[in-house]
Amino acid sequence: MRALVGCTVLLALAVALAVPGAAPGAEPTLHLVLTPSQKPTDLLAAGDEFGRVLGRLVGMPVRVTVASDYAAVIEALRNRTADLAFVHPGGYVLAHREAKATIVARNLWHGKSSFTSRIFVRKESNIRSVEELRGKTIAFVDPASSSGYIYPMVLLVQRGLVKNRDPRTFFKEVVFSGAHDASMRALLNGHVDAIASFDLAREQYLKDPAERERIVVVAETPEIPEAGIAARDGLDPALFARVRAALLQIKAPTYASLLARLYEIDGFAPAEDRDYDPVRAAIELLGARPR
Q1: Side-chain-facing half-sphere of 171: CA atoms under 13 Å
Q2: Model's pTM, two decimal places?
Q3: Which of 289, 230, 187 has its CA nearest to residue 34?
Q4: How far apart are CA 147 and CA 198, in angstroms?
């Protein structure tokens, strides 16, 4: 028993040292940052509940915030103001490269740990191929978004439509919506001619069947490894292992409603850095640089 108490004290000390901003005698807290891929207020409400569940399973409080944009997620990991972050695939590659972050677990989404990107248009536009988008307007999500920019841009470059890695060599106007749901609404409302988003964005954000019927696909990319949760550089290895074990416990049916409200996911699967090598290749093709 004495040995167990001693190990517990040492672990608590290691955790306090591992968590930035933990004052002497204060209860250590993990800070989890969410990627703003949907309405921040809705995301934060689900995130707070997720933080309570994760904290209970890990054995320490988890504070949750929503980043202002995709770049802010990487910056939070780099400057260690965040211990953990939900990262999309491209964001993880950049976070690993720029902040030495490490993937903890990979999302399961509709039973899969991969997805694709699609280019969507309105059915009434009579656009039937991606080549017909020359001189049109498109909404991407964010320059660091895998399905909302990186993979569709690789597709356009490989087809010879975009030159010099600049989408404006093909499209009349290029905008960044900041979120997948915002892109889908912009397309539906006629503000742009096309958008790039993940494969089931239409089904996820348009609940009205009549609205879904108005949106069609003109191109699709190869598979993309799913997003996940990454840990900052220097997080205590024992704590890292506890977080991974906890995440693998958060799954349906017990947490199905919470996961659906968070990012429409089913749970988590083990993940390794090498899983994201295809994303690295896509980023290299586009010549993405640290920001």
Answers
A1: 21
A2: 0.74
A3: 230
A4: 5
Backbone φ, ψ for residue 255 (5° rounding):
-115, 20
Question: In 145-277, at which residue ranges do the beta strands (DSSP E only) sit?
Answer: 173-176, 194-198, 215-220, 224-225, 228-231, 267-270
* Burial label, 93 (beta-carbon count in 10 A; 0-12, 13-18, 19+): buried
Q: Determine contact, residues 146/110, Cβ cutoff 8 Å.
A: no
- Which of 146, 102, 115 is CA-nearest to residue 264? 115
Domain 2-112+225-286 of CATH type 3.40.140.10: no
> Containing H/E element for 260?
helix 256-263
* Residue type present at position 3: A
Strand-pair partners of 107 = 268
In this prediction, residue 41 carries a pLDDT of 79
SS3 label, residue 217: strand
What span, in angstroms and rounded, lies between the C-alpha atoms of 250 and 267?
6
Is the confidence at residue 290, as pLDDT, over 50? no
Rg (CA), the chain: 20
Element (H, E) at 157: helix 151-158
pLDDT at residue 5 in the model: 31
Q: Amino acid letter at 40?
A: P
What is the CATH code of the structural domain delimited by 117-222?
3.40.190.10
Rounded Cα gap, residues 133 and 174, in angstroms: 12
**What are the sequence ranges of the domains in the chain?**
2-112+225-286, 117-222
